[in-house]
Amino acid sequence: MNYSALIVQRMGYIPIADESIKLMREIVEQVAYWKMYSASLHIANGVKAKISRTASGKIKIERSETKKQSLEVED
Description:
2 helices; three-stranded antiparallel β-sheet; about 80 residues; alpha+beta
């Protein structure tokens, strides 16, 4: 079973392209081996990801989605 797809579906997250996921995995590996401290990615559709190492040495992956809506009316 594809648990990642299930979590994405149930939590309502916008799917991320496979190429972006591959890049994120490479960044996590760099952070894990102390070659990078952190990285931020701006992915399509207002999705942002940040990969970093915490003070306790754990790898932290954050995801945020920006949803913006506007409406204009005439008097």
